[in-house]
Amino acid sequence: MKNNLYKLTQAAERPRLAGWSAKAFTTLFFGLVLMMSQVAVAQTGTAISGKVTDKQGALPGVSVVEKGTTNGTTTDADGNFKLQLSAGAKTLTISHVGYTSQDVDVTNKSTVDITLQEDEKTLGEVVVIGYGSLNKREVSSAITHLSSSDLLRVGSNSPLMSIQGKVAGLSVTNTSAGDPNSTPNIQLRGASSRNAGLGPLYVINGIPGGNIDNINQNEIESIDVLKGGAASAIYGTRGSNGVIVITTKKGSAQSRLFYDGYTSFDFLANELKVLSKDEFLANKRGVDFGGNTNWLKEVSRQPAFSHKHTLQFSGGNGKTNYFSSVDFRDANGIDLRAGKREYGGRVNINHTTANDMFALTFSVAPRYAKTSEADYSGFNYALTLNPTLSVKDSTGRYAYINSGFFANNPVEQATSVIRGEEIKFLDVNGSAKWNILQNLNTTVTFGEVTRSARAQRFTPSNITTVINGSGRNTAYQALNENDQKSLEWLGNYFLDVNKHSVKLLAGYSYQLFTNSGFDASNEKFPSDVLTYNGLGTGLWNLEKGINGVGSYKNSSTLIAFFGRLNYDFDQKYYVSASLRREGSSKFGYGNKWGYFPAASVAWRVTQENFLKSVTWLNELKVRADYGETGNQDFDPYKSLDTYGGYGYYPFNGTPYQVWGPNQNTNYDLRWEKAINFNAGVDFELFSNQVTGSVNYYVRTNKDLLGNYNVSNPPNIQGQTFANVGTMRNTGVELQLSAAVVNKGDFSYNLGLTGAWNNNKFVSFSNNLYRGQSYVDVVGMPAPGSPGTLQRLQEGTRIGSFYALKSAGVNESGALLVYNKNGEVVPANEAKNDDKQFVGNGLPKFTLGLSNSFKYKNWDLSVFLRGAFGYKLFNTYAFYLGTPAAQENANVLTSAYDGGKYSKLTSTSTYSSLSDYFLEAGGFLKVDNVTLSYTQPLKTKFMQSVRIYATTRNLATFTKFTGGDPDLIQVNGLYPGVRTNSDNNGTLDYYPSTTQLLLGLQLTF
After folding, report:
1. R_g over Cα of the chain
2. Residue (of 149, 193, 187) closest to 169 by Cα position
3. What distance lies between CA 802 and its chain's CA centroid?
4. For 885-922, where are the E strands, in sequence order?
5. Contact 365, 429 (CB under 8 A)
6. What's the start-to-end Cα distance of the chain, in Å?
7. Of 56-65, 183-192, 505-514, 660-669, which one has max mean pLDDT?
8. pLDDT of residue 75
9. Which of 784, 896, 924, 982 could form a disulfide with 866 if both were Cys (CB 3.0 to 4.6 A apart)?
């Protein structure tokens, strides 16, 4: 049970070591270790020391306070403490979340040893749920809790990368982790929609819809993932994709100053291999320009250097406390252009009045970031450009050719073209709680979440592509602003009578969302000096009569009334029921309001007499829950009559703007509905050395939102945004942790997450819209006309590849396939009717394995992650991996290595999609390894020093030959193939990286 409690940890980030060698860092590392191990400053006066334990061993983070004062300290990682007492001090108060506090007499004592007992009734608010928190034993739905100590150490743009693989059923993917501006894609328990959002709802410090990009990982106290429908139904129309609740740190009576800094170095990993100059010429791939260029090296910067620094300070007393954090990060991408520099901060203040009648909280978090967008196209060019072409010609100008896949010089593009953003965040929230009675309180919460992003782009007139193209320099600016205002009221009532315990919640929520922006562009500027800051000086819009500007604004409102009942009898039987009535302005006139009910039950079997004699079984809880949730994550006004511009019509020499209806009205538009069932078991075995849970779930998503083909006329447009279709996900999840070894100075803890998911697209139709039973998706790009690669069909699993089934290669190097009659024919003679289902791109099983070792002051963690049971389409092999690839372009080494792709020499079947290019996508990664040394100090200036080193993406074991399988998205409706923002196939390539991170933490 100890691992379920909140603990004071010392997680954070790391310092700048720019230009330092590995030898210099090693010297610093061991020099500090040696120095700190010899530091011991004698203290004068009355001192007390001791150790705090529970039945499992040492307890870190326990509060030790001289009773009646604010003089105190906390136990270190080994449960030890030392405190200078005031004159005449007699009693210490020892307290920790989830344990019964103890007063210890220290009269005439210099050492004490204390064993805390777990508080069975008030084990602590371990699990944060919707609009509240519960003791873990009271939870009757599927919720996974992570404390700050559970988070992975990564130098990433998003704190969500720190939970990758840590929560069973939660898929966190980032197909361009080497780009400091990239954000991960999050999906819980499989895809759940066609065209509405697939990501979960974020609740940050109690505010639904919080901004995940405005969180520093060091600020996080805990993350709770609400997976079960009963847990997330309290959030109504936004709970279908799960809810992630993030709680940031708060102050305490113990003053604390903490620094964390790191440097990180990213190196290319699992990159695609192309022909060298000699191989290119030997295989007669193109003209010899006399140079010898490794284009992949030229468009990369290795290592890509980043550093981040965080300074936190907190303190206060029993009634008022504060937590403050400031951070700075400067990160570079693995490409030549990507970068991000950001400054952020957070202040959390908590105050309780002297009579405990009122409690006030206030939090403000500003952040500013300036970014330079990654040049993804640079790596495309690097794969295909002629290696005999030099970066610059004999005159010193960038070399340029207009043959091959891409006519460009990627080095010139990356270093000359400006593409970036300035982003400002501001999160403000506060609450006022009135404790009317000891068991009755009411809370009002307000919050505002804002984001403002100014995009800036400029292409100068002196780069080769412009000189050989239009000859015009171009500039663009856009400002997009998002604002969310929230006001919520909560009422809580608690009642304990004998063996009965009741908790009642009632609430009201109001949220207003506003989005607005404008953009402007122009060309043909007289000078490049002003870049994007002189849009009015361009002549192009004036000469062509083009407006060149645009703007928009939209808003939506969400209002809800909700309530929940939690009841338990004798801490043995638990029942929870909730109901939310919610209205959204996005829906049609007759469907703006809906009800979202939920219920869950749990039985702590180990509380029964017939199991109390089973000493090795400490906890066994069986639970089940049901909940209905919704999804309204789409643009406003989809249900309304809206008008838009259709260009300009000249009349008598004057151009007039043409306006007309730009979408079909749908007054019946409503939220997607998800019907969730979950059954699970929680267990603790062998004196809590083994703990875990198993969940089985079924989620059926009905009335899926999406564009549906309709006849035209009578409809104005050929598509209507409507509720059409049904999808079902089922699965099993396992979460397990075990204290494998705990002897003396050495311990080894293991954590395991595993998830199996099965998906079925049930139907495309409903009572109003009936039509085809399938849709062909993921159109593959030129050259050639490959067509679509996947089919979304009723009764099948999403991500199903629908292509020709290969039958080998003939003597002329042409691809052979089976037609619908089972006959073998050349692929270029096959028809569309000959396609069949040939594989699936959705993983069947995912795995995360944490290994934590501790020996004295040393800590080592090794985290493995994997996905299994699916296929990936090797897009790069299809376009660039065969001898039949386009002439005058470089190709992958697979075209001439004697393997299966080198046999395809005929150009006649070059663009024929088949399972010849499908490969097993399963992989196992050594994903994160961290080694650290912590030296506690006995000085009045500093409490501890921690030095650590982390590697990310250290090794990947896979049969996939198309680079790192993690680069191909497996979330969403089209898993298993590289797609762009339009869900079509793409050759975009941004290689994966191995990251080395070196950090330092100081606690004062």
Report:
1. 31
2. 187
3. 30
4. 918-920
5. no
6. 30
7. 505-514
8. 85
9. 924
